[in-house]
Design brief:
5-stranded mixed sheet, alpha+beta, 721 residues, 47% helix, globular, 25 helices, 3-stranded antiparallel sheet
């Protein structure tokens, strides 16, 4: 029998795997659902599953409870959350009389109080998991007879599991979908009912396929109800379960069952929706002197390497670009409206409707949007505020309509056309705006402004996950805009990258040997932090230890690469796969070492309180991540180009209301979601330090001026660095 600690570890591993960012959050209802799925996958008893979740939720509820205790003759007060942290510290060897007193007062020292022993009323048994008692399925769908059901104990558990999953999410469904899912559960019950005839079971299975869009995935573990759109996984969860796999097997034995490739369908929509203004409309500096001047005369645009200079434009009869776009608003708007992406998306959506993969509401919503845009061209004065508002309203209706029909598909489409939304609104309002022709244009999806006024690079993102909007940008591209050329190539993309071994430029920290690397790293940390008024973040002893750990790790990584270089591996994929295996054997040791030095307080000072969990994680701190964090702490605070960036966010807020917000960039790290993707994999060669502007931080206490002086963020007065 496994020890309880092993079981807990298995639960945590499985849970972290299912959560999209690997960091479970008990405040997130989806994460709690994924925790339940994780424990089911491990075949834990329902009683255990229930109690674990109950304890977690209760723990969350009482986090702010005040705990009062005496220590050294004085009365002290902490929250229950803090007391739990003290208990964790003690378990890890970080004990003190103060912490022990707090933990004891909170009854977290493992000793049952009399009350605890006597109060068993809150504990639930396995019977409490029988959702059949809820009466959820007692209401039969129209046309269903009141026949007697005969479900075995095992089948009751399966059907009850489906019912419970639906109960957890049914309130978020439209009335039509509520009816559909209830009817679907009735058909599922027939399939598992021993009193049902083979004909009745087959009829029920066919109904599920025809009316609910029942299908499965490649490994036949997930049971999809595609007519529910974004809620298609309502009875199987994101990863599927043994119970949903059992249902898939039963249905496939009765009728022909289709395989639904969710990833392929979403990718199909993403590809179809990608804007395409046509290569014929790309204008490079060599083609037109005005475009050349546009890029070369602005202090931000001129920093971008020349190979990326170029824009989409409307070509006049003379073969030259019509500039500025603000004087040709309708021409540019017509070009954007008529780009083939929208029609391609409609055509692809129709095929998916015919295949039973998506709701026909997706097609209807897209066609309504297409008609709205043509109506604006024909019936509105352009430019005008009215035309701009009409475009905004149409995109808003598009976002709402797609989400109602299929939220998964909505995200796949909207993330591609987010830039179109903002671009077309600004054109309709008579602003000068262009789309860069280079797909890897640094920092921005759109260029706003002219040579005689401010030019802003605008990043457009759709969809919010935690603090992250859309797909975060690689900090390497942001750094390319820095006014100081020596800071433009400091961030790398993955651990072990040539020239960026520990995620930052080797020239900053790497010497000829380990001792030289250590001394060079110490100098880098001190210089980098002093430059932005953070010289007191680490003590000299802490800097010494960080440098010592980093130089040891650098040597380990170099040795791994040398070994692999001598193995004549067939391709890059094989090389980095083997690299990852070898790093995995040593990584935890170094994370723990670094985690004993770098604290949450250090992380907050470097990259903002919002980003602490991204750097200081369970198990410690990655060596390459702290190196990257130290550099980006300086780069953000000194990068004046960040003030020339605008960030447009299109998403649903916590009340499910569509939001359309554009914020000015800042030099405050806390205004960014800063994450670290440090590994190169078979499917991803990019990564590194990732930045997504959120704008939810607070102004920095100090600001670094262009002349190198440091001023107070509150008073504006110069202060000593």
């Amino acid at each position: 029998m496994k020890h309880i600690s092993e079981i807990i570890e298995n639960i945590l591993v499985e849970w972290a795997y299912r959560v999209h960012d690997g960091m479970p959050n008990i405040k997130n209802a989806t994460h709690i659902q994924q925790l339940r799925e994780s424990m089911e996958e491990l075949n834990l008893p329902n009683k255990v599953i229930y109690q674990v979740i109950k304890n977690l939720l209760n723990e969350q509820d009482d986090e702010d409870e005040k705990i009062t205790f005496n220590h050294d003759g004085e009365k002290h007060t902490v929250t229950k959350k803090t007391a739990r942290q003290y208990a964790s510290d003690i378990n890890q060897g970080d004990d003190s009389e103060y912490k022990s007193a707090a933990v004891k007062a909170a009854n977290l020292d493992g000793k049952d109080t009399k009350k605890d022993k006597e109060d068993d009323s809150g504990k639930l048994g396995a019977d409490d998991f029988d959702t059949k008692k809820s009466g959820y399925l007692k209401k039969k769908s129209s046309g269903e007879s009141n026949r007697t059901q005969n479900l075995s104990d095992e089948n009751k558990k399966i059907v009850s599991d489906f019912e419970k999953r639906v109960q957890d999410r049914v309130e978020n469904l439209s009335d039509d979908k509520k009816t559909l899912v209830k009817d679907s559960l009735d058909k599922v019950a027939i399939i598992y009912d021993d009193n049902s005839s083979p004909e009745q079971k087959k009829e029920a299975a066919q109904w599920l396929v025809d009316n609910a869009g029942f299908s499965t995935n490649a490994n036949r573990k997930k049971a999809y109800l595609n007519k529910l759109g974004g809620d298609r996984k309502i009875i199987s969860g994101d990863a599927g379960t043994k119970k949903s796999a059992d249902l898939v097997n039963k249905v496939s034995e009765l009728v022909e069952l289709k395989t639904f490739d969710a990833k392929s369908v979403k990718q199909g929509f993403t590809t179809a929706a990608k804007p395409d203004l046509g290569n014929d409309n790309i204008v490079k500096p060599k083609d037109d002197g005005r475009v050349a001047d546009y890029f070369s005369n602005h202090p931000i645009l001129q920093k971008i390497r020349g190979g990326l200079h170029g824009m989409y434009g409307v070509i006049g009869e003379d073969g030259k670009i019509k500039m500025p776009s603000s004087e040709h608003s309708k021409d540019y708007l017509t070009q954007s409206f008529n780009n083939p992406a929208l029609q391609n998306t409609i055509d692809f959506a129709k095929k998916q409707v015919e295949s039973g993969n998506v709701d026909e509401g997706v097609v209807t919503t897209l066609e309504n949007h297409q008609n709205n845009l043509q109506n604006i061209l024909e019936n509105y004065e352009i430019p005008s505020n009215e035309a701009q508002q009409a475009i905004a309203d149409s995109y808003n209706d598009l976002m709402v309509g797609l989400h109602k029909s299929d939220s998964d598909i909505a995200n796949a489409i909207m993330k591609q056309i987010a830039e179109n939304n903002l671009y077309e609104q600004e054109l309709a309002n008579g602003e000068e705006v262009y789309l860069p022709s280079a797909g890897n244009f640094p920092a921005g999806d759109k260029i706003k402004g002219g040579t005689t006024e401010r030019v802003a690079l605008v990043s457009c993102k759709f969809g919010k996950s935690g603090r992250i909007y859309g797909c975060p940008a690689n900090s390497k591209t942001i750094c390319e805009l820095h006014q100081d050329e020596s800071k433009r190539n400091n961030q790398g993309q993955y651990l072990g990258e040539g020239g960026h071994t520990l995620l930052i430029n080797d020239n900053l920290i790497k010497g000829e040997n380990k001792e030289e690397t250590k001394e060079k790293t110490k100098g880098f940390i001190k210089k980098t932090l002093t430059e932005v008024g953070l010289s007191n973040v680490f003590s000299d002893d802490e800097i010494d230890e960080i440098s010592n750990i980093s130089s040891d790790y650098m040597e380990e990584i170099d040795n791994i690469k040398k070994e692999l270089d001598g193995m004549n591996l067939p391709d890059a994929s094989s090389y980095w796969k083997e690299f990852g295996k070898r790093v995995a054997k040593i990584e935890d040791e170094y994370k723990q070492r670094m985690g004993k030095v770098v604290t949450k307080e250090h992380a907050a000072a470097l990259i903002g309180e919002n980003n602490v969990p991204n750097l200081v994680q369970k198990g410690g701190v990655k060596v390459e991540s702290i190196m990257s964090a130290i550099e980006i702490a300086n780069n953000i605070r000194t990068n004046g180009s960040l003030l020339e960036l605008e960030h447009n966010k299109q998403y649903y807020d916590e009340n499910n209301k569509p939001k359309f917000v554009t914020d000015k960039g800042t030099q405050n790290p806390n205004d960014y979601s800063i994450t670290f993707r440090t590994k190169r994999t078979a499917g991803r060669t990019g990564g590194g330090c990732q930045l997504s502007f959120t704008g939810d931080g607070t102004p920095p206490k100090n600001n670094l001026q262009d002349d190198g002086s440091l001023t107070s963020g509150e008073t504006g007065k110069e202060i000593e660095a």
